[in-house]
């Protein structure tokens, strides 16, 4: 009997007992705050001279941990180990590989609040966002484990009376996992899990802002019984270690989640053939977004306003799926704008020590400066109706910011800001709204608030995004239920947490045997 897949429930922080458990998680994190983590290459702990320092973005002072920084020599060593380990790991039964993911998920579930508390400190997430990040990590591990069990025998193809045919999936080889800081746990763990459950070995290069949660994940995998050398932990500079590994002739695939700029760089470099390379590299890239919420005049306007606020300012807009454009049909434009401004003015911003704080800091100084630059551009391109101020004296805090009456071709309507900034744009009618929404090189998520059935069907067909939501905001996908990934410059059309994601990490082999 197939047991239906159930995703990990989110924690209800209005419940005092849950709050206490979370605070206990924070205390556990305190016990290892500031610890130093080595590289892990083939199970061996390697200390390097240089360190990456992970800082709490809410206070700029607290060192969450330091990690050894890999050089190209370390990356080379890890590559050799991963290549050698591939020969045994690819022959390890898929059931055993899946089992390691299930055991890892169980360990994380047991320590869920601790890991979420670590994300509060390392990434500056509010409690509910950190909880969702950890829950998604658990989901990815369990879902990909289950998917592997379904794929292990391949797919049935017809045999002929004289010939028996089989169609199976085999792993690719050594992969490079390059993950972002914003879903520091879920995406990093999901990308790694998909690659190794399918029989590949990997080098994991997490984002430099969030290396500690990745080091913790490696400890979980080891506790769950993952053999040495299957996942090698090599945090380092993108330009130095990243480029080196992308160019490496033994790299078989690169799984990347991050910005458009870095994604394109990886895609271009991976297309080059180097000396000693005997295959073409595969690139799985999940990149940025310029996500839009469209509201028509039949919509529930209060629901529309709440959806825009949650999608634009949840986790300070630092989601690839964050709403950064609100396109509103002209007869309800003023009404929706006013409601959004009212709700936004009630939002709390600060260090996320309590579950009631809605918005924490942005991740670091570079992000802070970039967002502030966009706010200055926005002041020229639109009418500032909320926020617009920032303060980095204690942590990297930016007020939720709204610009009204922005032209569809304005810079803040086209470029990914990745911060708490939303631009309002007026549309003449629904056709115009969809055309404005599609006026971007991205194509990740979008949402339509409407009670008009024809508009729903029209958007289903014409709104060109990988994840389209009706009558809700545009953030938040659920593993197994709402596979996630975008079109155009949002990536290579892959869908994380979907039924075909594992196939991207494998190659199909046809064998035909004369009878
Ligand atoms: N589509 C999705 O599912 C998805 C999910 C999360 C985040 N994102 C996107 O990620 C971005 C934010 O994340 P970020 O700031 O960590 O992105 P980023 O592109 O700056 O970094 C991502 C990773 O790439 C590494 N890197 C940097 N230069 C490199 C190079 N030359 N070679 C190899 N690796 C290199 C970084 O060290 C990091 O590990 C946003 O654009 C967001 O939209 C997309």
TrEMBL record:
One of its GO terms (molecular function) is L-glutamate gamma-semialdehyde dehydrogenase activity. It holds the Pfam family Aldedh. Its EC number is 1.2.1.88. The active site is at residues 286, 320. Keywords: NAD, Oxidoreductase. The keyword Isomerase does not apply. It is an enzyme of class 1 (oxidoreductase). It comes from the Bacteria. It catalyses: L-glutamate 5-semialdehyde + NAD(+) + H2O = L-glutamate + NADH + 2 H(+). Pathway: Amino-acid degradation; L-proline degradation into L-glutamate; L-glutamate from L-proline: step 2/2. Residues 49-510 form the Aldehyde dehydrogenase domain. InterPro entries: Ald_DH/histidinol_DH, Ald_DH_C, Ald_DH_CS_CYS, Ald_DH_CS_GLU, Ald_DH_N, Aldehyde_DH_dom, Proline_metab_enzyme, RocA. CDD domains: ALDH_PutA-P5CDH-RocA. HAMAP family: RocA. This is 1-pyrroline-5-carboxylate dehydrogenase. It comes from Metabacillus malikii.
């Amino acid at each position: 009997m197939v047991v239906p897949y159930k995703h990990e429930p989110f924690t209800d922080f209005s419940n005092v007992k849950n709050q206490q458990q979370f605070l206990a998680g924070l205390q556990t994190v305190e016990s290892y705050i500031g610890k130093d983590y080595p590289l892990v290459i083939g199970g061996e702990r390697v200390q390097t001279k240089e360190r990456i320092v992970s800082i709490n973005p809410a206070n700029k002072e607290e060192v969450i941990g330091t990690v050894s920084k890999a050089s190209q020599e370390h990356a080379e060593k890890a590559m050799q180990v991963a290549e050698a380990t591939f020969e045994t790991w690819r022959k390890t039964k898929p059931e055993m590989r899946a089992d390691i993911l299930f055991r890892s998920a169980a360990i994380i579930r047991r320590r869920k609040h601790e890991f979420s508390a670590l994300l509060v400190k390392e990434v500056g997430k509010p409690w509910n966002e950190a909880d969702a990040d950890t829950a998604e990590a658990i989901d990815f591990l369990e879902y990909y484990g289950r998917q592997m069990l379904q794929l292990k025998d391949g797919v049935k193809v017809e045999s002929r009376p004289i010939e028996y045919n089989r169609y199976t999936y085999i792993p690719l080889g050594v992969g490079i996992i390059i993950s972002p800081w914003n879903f520091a746990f879920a995406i990093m763990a999901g990308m790694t899990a998909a690659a190794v459950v399918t029989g590949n070995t990997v080098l994991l290069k997490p984002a430099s802002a969030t290396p500690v949660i990745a080091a913790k994940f490696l400890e979980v995998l080891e506790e769950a019984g993952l053999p040495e050398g299957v996942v090698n932990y090599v945090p380092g500079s993108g330009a130095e270690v990243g480029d080196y590994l992308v160019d490496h002739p033994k790299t078989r695939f690169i799984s990347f989640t991050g910005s458009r700029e870095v994604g394109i760089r990886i895609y271009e470099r991976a297309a080059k053939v180097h000396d000693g390379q005997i295959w073409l590299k595969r690139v799985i890239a999940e990149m940025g977004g310029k996500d839009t919420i469209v509201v028509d005049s039949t919509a529930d306007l209060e629901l529309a306003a709440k959806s825009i606020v949650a999608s634009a300012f949840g986790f300070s807009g630092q989601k690839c799926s964050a709403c950064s454009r609100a396109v509103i049909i002209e007869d309800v434009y003023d009404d929706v704008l006013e409601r959004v401004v009212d709700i936004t003015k009630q939002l709390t911003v600060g260090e996320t020590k309590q579950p009631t704080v809605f918005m924490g800091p942005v991740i670091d100084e570079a992000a802070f400066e970039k967002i502030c630059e966009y706010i200055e551009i926005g002041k020229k391109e639109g009418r500032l109706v909320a926020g617009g101020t920032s303060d980095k004296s204690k942590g990297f805090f930016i007020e939720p910011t709204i610009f009204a009456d922005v032209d569809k071709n304005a810079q803040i309507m086209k470029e990914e800001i990745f911060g708490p900034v939303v631009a309002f744009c007026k549309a003449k009618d629904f056709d115009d709204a969809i055309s404005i929404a599609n006026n971007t090189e991205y194509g990740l998520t979008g949402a339509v608030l409407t009670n008009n059935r024809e508009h729903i069907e029209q958007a289903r067909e014409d709104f060109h995004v990988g994840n389209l939501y009706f009558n809700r905001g545009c953030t938040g996908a659920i593993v197994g239920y709402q596979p996630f990934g975008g079109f155009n410059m949002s990536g290579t059309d892959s869908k994380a947490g979907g039924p075909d994601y594992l196939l991207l990490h494998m190659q199909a082999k046809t064998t035909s045997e004369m009878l």
